[in-house]
Write a structure and sequence with these properties.
heterodimer, A: alpha/beta, Rossmann fold, two-stranded antiparallel sheet, 11 helices, 11% strand, B: 326 residues, 2 domains, 5-stranded mixed beta sheet, globular
Chain lengths: 320, 326
C-alpha cells in the first residue's frame, strides 16, 4: 500500500473532525444558524469511499454533508463561509449547511429531504450511461432513508436499468432519534434489502477507513464494468447528536462511550504508528497543520461579507 | 397549414425535439410499447428506438428524479407523468428539488426539464382523476407553467418550453386532445408570458386558461347574441410567467373582470389575478371582480353531478348577468 496515501486518509479524517468540532463551537456561539448536522464519528466513510473516485465521478448526498464535501476536496473556506451564510460560501449563502454544492467537482449536493437525493442519483447515473461517460455516482444515504418510497423506487430503477451507482448507506443506527430496531421491519442488516432488487450488497465496518476504501474499490470496479449498482452498508455511529438541536434523550451516554472506543481516527493513528509509518512527531505536525487550516478557514469565513440584498432575487430562473 | 389535433401538434413538437438534439429523450409510463395513455407518443418508440423513448415502472418520484438528475448532468429530458393527479406522488422531486436546485446551488445546477402531464376533468373519472393542479404549481418559484388551449398554441409553446433552462410543467387538458386547428407549416414559436386576446370586446374582460378558454368563448358568443354586449376573452397561455400587462390593459378598457378556471375556487389561481386587478385597476372597475371555478368538492363520478361542478357557459352567462346587470 502506498504509505503517503494512507497518511493522507488520516490527515483528511482529521480535517473533517476538526472542521466539525469548530462548526459545533461556532454554532453555540451563534455564528452558524439553522439546522446543522455534524459528521463526527463517521469520517472513515466519506474519506475512505471518496478517495476511490475519479474527477469525472459524481457525488450526491444527504444533509449531513460537510464531511463528504471536505473529503471531495472542496475548499473548507467556502464550506465554512456557506455555513455562516456568507457571500464566499459554496452557494453564496443561499444553501446553508444542508445544501452544499460544487458542480466543478461534480458534488451535486447536500439534499435535505430524507431519500430525496436517490431519484436524482438515478438521473446522474442515467446521464453517464446515456452519454457513455463511464463515470459512476457515489450516493450516500442514511438508515432513515431506507423507509422512504423514493428509496425503493430508486433501487428498482437502478437495478433494472443497470445504472452505475454505488449506494453507500451510512447506518448510524438512528433515524434522527429513533433506533433502527424500532423502524425497520427487517431489523438489523439493512444491506440484505438490496437482494430483493438483485443489487449486490455488503455490510462493512464504517469505522475503519481502510475497510471502507477496499470495499469501495471493489464495488467501483464492478460498477465500471457495466454490471449495474452496488449497495454498501457501512455500520457507524455519530458521536454527537442528530443535529445541534438534539436533546440526546434517546440513547445512553454509555453507548456513546462504547462506540468512541472505536474512533476511526484513533484506530488509523494506532495502525500508522504500529506499522511505523509515522511517528508521534509527524502526527503532531499533521495535527498542527490541520488546526491551522481550520483556523484560517474560520477567519476567512468570518471576514467574508454577507451577500448583497440584490442577490435575493437572482438564480430563481436563468438570467433573472 | 395543416389541420392538426392538439394530440398531433404536441407529437409534432416531440418529433422535432428528438430529431434536432440527441440529448433529448422521452421517459414515462406506457409511452413506448403501449403508445402513450393518451396516444401522444404513438409510434415514437418504433421511430426513435428504446434508447430515446423509455418506458418506466409506475414510480413517479424516480421518473421525475431521473429526469432532474439527467438534466443536471447536461441532458434534455422530456418526462411524461401520465396525469397531473399522479404528479402528487412526485411532488417532493418537483417542488423540493427541480424548482430549487438552481437557487440553492446559486446557479451551479440547471434543470432544463420539460414535464408533460395531463390535466382537467369532465370525463367522469371521479375524484382522484379529474383534478387541475397547474395553479398550485404556478405558486412555486423556480417552475414555469404552461397551459395551452389550442393545437397551434400547444406547438408554439412546446417549442419555447424546449428552449428553457428551467423546469417547465406543460399541462395538456385531456378534453382538448381531439380538438383541431389550422397550424402553420412554417416554423413559429409562442413566447412565455404573452397572453392571447382570443376575442376583442369593450364591455367585459374574461380571463381564463387551459380547457376553460373554449367555455369562455362559447359564453361570450351567447352574451353577444342575447344581450348585445361584447366580452374580451384573454387566454393566459402560461400561468408562470404571467402576463399581467395584457390583463390590466383590458380591464382598464372594459371596467369589468371575470376570472374563470376549472380548479376549486378556494386557493384557485384566479385569486391572484383578482388581487392584481383590484390593485392595478381599482379606479377603472365598474363592479366586483367575479371568480368562477369548480365547487369546493372532490369531483363526482355521476355525469349530472360532474357537470354541476365544472364551470359551464350557462354558469358564466348567469354570473355575468347577475353581477353586471346586463
Amino acid at each position: 500500500m502506498d504509505q503517503s496515501k494512507t497518511i493522507k486518509l488520516y490527515q483528511d479524517m482529521l480535517l473533517l473532525r476538526r472542521f466539525e468540532e469548530e462548526t459545533g463551537r461556532l454554532y453555540m456561539e451563534g455564528d452558524i444558524r439553522g439546522f446543522c448536522h455534524l459528521y463526527i464519528g463517521e469520517e472513515a466513510i466519506a474519506v475512505g469511499s471518496i478517495s476511490c473516485l475519479s474527477e469525472k465521478d459524481y457525488i450526491i448526498t444527504h444533509y449531513r454533508d460537510h464531511g463528504h464535501a471536505l473529503a471531495r476536496g472542496i475548499n473548507p473556506k467556502n464550506i465554512m463561509s456557506e455555513l455562516m451564510g456568507k457571500s464566499d460560501g459554496t452557494s453564496a449563502g443561499k444553501g446553508g449547511s444542508m445544501h452544499i454544492f460544487d458542480v466543478s467537482k461534480r458534488f451535486m449536493g447536500g439534499h435535505a429531504i430524507v431519500g430525496g437525493q436517490l431519484p436524482i442519483a438515478c438521473g446522474l447515473g442515467f446521464a453517464s450511461k446515456y452519454q457513455e461517460e463511464n463515470s459512476i455516482v457515489l450516493c450516500f444515504l442514511g438508515d432513515g432513508a431506507v423507509n422512504e418510497g423514493e428509496f425503493h423506487e430508486s433501487m428498482n430503477l437502478a437495478s433494472l436499468w443497470k445504472l452505475p451507482i454505488l449506494f453507500c448507506l451510512e447506518n448510524n443506527l438512528y433515524g434522527m432519534g429513533t433506533h433502527v430496531n424500532k423502524t425497520r421491519s427487517s431489523g438489523k442488516d439493512i444491506y440484505k434489502i438490496a437482494d430483493s432488487y438483485k443489487i449486490p450488497s455488503m455490510q462493512i465496518d464504517g469505522m475503519d477507513v481502510l475497510e471502507v476504501q477496499k470495499a469501495t474499490q471493489q464495488s467501483i470496479e464492478k460498477i465500471r464494468s457495466g454490471e449495474g449498482p452496488v449497495f454498501l452498508e457501512a455500520m457507524c455511529y455519530r458521536f454527537r447528536g442528530h443535529s445541534m438541536a438534539d436533546p440526546s434523550s434517546y440513547r445512553k451516554s454509555q453507548e456513546v462511550v462504547e462506540w468512541q472506543k472505536n474512533d476511526p481516527i484513533i484506530k488509523l493513528e494506532k495502525f500508522l504508528s504500529n506499522q511505523k509509518i509515522i511517528d508521534q512527531q509527524k502526527i503532531l505536525k499533521i495535527k498542527e497543520s490541520v488546526d491551522s487550516e481550520i483556523f484560517d478557514c474560520i477567519e476567512f469565513a468570518k471576514n467574508s461579507p454577507d451577500p448583497k440584498i440584490e442577490s435575493l432575487l437572482e438564480n430563481v430562473y436563468q438570467n433573472e | 397549414m395543416s389541420n392538426l389535433t392538439l394530440r398531433e401538434s404536441i407529437k409534432t413538437g416531440l418529433i422535432e425535439a428528438l430529431e434536432s438534439d440527441t440529448k433529448v429523450f422521452l421517459m414515462g409510463e406506457d409511452i413506448g410499447d403501449y403508445n402513450g395513455a393518451y396516444a401522444v407518443t404513438a409510434g415514437l418508440l418504433k421511430k426513435f428506438g428504446p434508447k430515446r423513448i423509455i418506458d418506466t415502472p409506475i414510480s413517479e418520484s424516480v421518473i421525475l428524479g431521473t429526469g432532474i438528475g439527467a438534466a443536471a448532468a447536461g441532458l434534455r429530458p422530456i418526462v411524461e407523468i401520465m396525469t397531473i393527479n399522479f404528479l402528487l406522488l412526485a411532488f417532493d422531486q418537483l417542488i423540493n428539488h427541480a424548482a430549487k436546485l438552481r437557487y440553492m446551488s446559486n446557479g451551479q445546477i440547471e434543470v432544463p426539464l420539460v414535464l408533460r402531464t395531463v390535466t382537467g376533468g369532465g370525463a367522469q373519472l371521479g375524484a382522484t382523476h379529474s383534478q387541475s393542479f397547474e395553479g398550485w404549481l404556478a405558486a412555486v418559484p423556480g417552475l414555469k407553467v404552461v397551459c395551452p388551449s389550442t393545437p397551434k398554441d400547444a406547438l408554439g409553446l412546446f417549442r419555447t418550453s424546449m428552449k428553457q433552462k428551467d423546469p417547465v410543467v406543460f399541462a395538456e387538458h385531456a378534453l382538448l386532445y381531439g380538438v383541431k386547428e389550422e397550424v402553420p407549416d412554417e416554423f413559429f414559436e409562442i413566447p412565455f408570458g404573452k397572453a392571447n386576446i382570443k376575442r376583442s370586446g369593450d364591455s367585459i374582460t374574461i380571463i381564463s386558461y387551459s380547457g376553460m378558454v373554449r367555455t369562455c368563448m362559447a359564453a361570450s358568443e351567447i352574451i353577444s347574441k342575447d344581450f348585445n354586449v361584447e366580452c374580451e376573452v384573454i387566454d393566459l397561455r402560461t400561468l408562470r410567467p404571467l402576463d399581467f400587462e395584457t390583463i390590466i390593459k383590458s380591464v382598464k378598457k372594459t371596467g369589468r373582470a371575470v376570472v374563470v378556471e376549472e380548479t376549486w375556487k378556494t386557493g384557485g389561481f384566479g385569486a391572484n389575478i383578482s388581487e392584481s386587478i383590484q390593485l392595478e385597476a381599482f379606479d377603472y372597475l365598474d363592479g366586483p371582480i367575479i371568480r368562477i371555478a369548480s365547487e369546493d368538492v372532490p369531483a363526482p363520478y355521476n355525469r349530472k353531478l360532474e357537470l354541476g361542478t365544472i364551470p359551464s357557459e350557462e354558469k358564466i352567462v348567469a354570473a355575468i348577468k347577475q353581477n353586471f346587470s346586463i
